[in-house]
Amino acid sequence: MARVTTFVTVTVIATESLSKRFPRVTALDRLSVDVGPGVTGLVGANGAGKSTLIKILLGLSPATEGQARVLGLDVATEGAAIRERVGYMPEHDCLPPDVSATEFVVHMARMSGLPPAAARERTADTLRHVGLYEERYRPIGGYSTGMKQRVKLAQALVHDPQLVFLDEPTNGLDPVGRDDMLALIRRIHTDFGISVLVTSHLLGELERTCDHVVVIDGGKLLRSSSTTDFTQITTTLAVEVTDSDEHPDGTRAVREALTARGIAVEHGGGLPGAGHVLLLTARGEETYDVVRDVVTDLGLGLVRMEQRRHHISEVFQETGDQRKEAVGHDS
Ligand SMILES: Nc1ncnc2c1ncn2[C@@H]1O[C@H](COP(=O)(O)OP(=O)(O)OP(=O)(O)O)[C@@H](O)[C@H]1O
């Protein structure tokens, strides 16, 4: 008998027309989005609805309308089964100050159903993984913000979930602490195969960490796509040319010729120390040909013509004021 092979795209989270209305505000507004395995960023300004979505996905808060499934389980009826398989790092400080990280994480592991010996072993492994060593025996009250974030992360991981929700894990961290946390988040997926949904109000910081980014604003979906698609919507070409006797300012001559051919040159000499660099938006292969022809016709030398990858935050700056205002940017 012929064997039929089907390719199934695994959906980790699926929402369909999901809404959450509070008396004075609509926190989620008919949100339909699918999230696959890997590391996914959920980005939106403060109040966009990120935490509300996470609480619904954990089965902790009922949706007003619509449906959602997590790991194939219905959030409305299978919340307990979802929480067995999903770890949650809440946004706000929620740690008891008087106990040590070890005591707290063992307690959380026991609450998740692990027997005492396994809970202790998993706690030691997880705290080591998040980078807490001798300090793990000291009371949490004396910890830095970075150490507290690591304890919150450890308790989300200790029961070996298939998926973790991390709500603003970089909040309150300095730039070095932020980078460390983002690297740690990436390793949760690469080292253990756990899928991650991580929220942030900073679009820029997620591009290095996430495979996929979902952007929401006012509870509505603005965009959901792979990080690469985000950063390659448009390609900027950096073009550098020589001068000649005939054209002592080669850069200017090329700029004028390109403008005459209908190619907008975004900035002239915008890169540090590169007075001869032109930046222009490439629209397919033909832009390359036009630049090459223009430079040759002017009798100039082409020093370089290279693609410059966009950062996510730049893409948003270019795609309209509404999005720009909706999403915070790295400073
Ligand atoms: N229990 C609640 N009662 C009333 N309004 C709420 C409640 N929880 C959230 N909201 C409102 O819903 C909107 C979305 O809040 P939510 O906390 O989900 O946003 P967020 O994107 O996580 O932002 P932040 O990072 O600031 O928490 C906000 O306007 C908020 O004030």
Automatic annotation (TrEMBL):
Q: What's the protein here called?
A: ABC transporter ATP-binding protein
Q: Does the keyword Lyase apply?
A: no
GO MF term (any one)? ATP binding
> Hey, which family's this protein in?
Belongs to the ABC transporter superfamily.
Q: What is the lineage of its organism?
A: Bacteria, Bacillati, Actinomycetota, Actinomycetes, Kitasatosporales
| Alphabetical UniProt keywords | ATP-binding, Nucleotide-binding, Transport
User: Where do the coiled-coil regions begin and end?
Assistant: none
Natural source organism = Streptomyces glaucescens
Q: Where are the transmembrane segments?
A: none
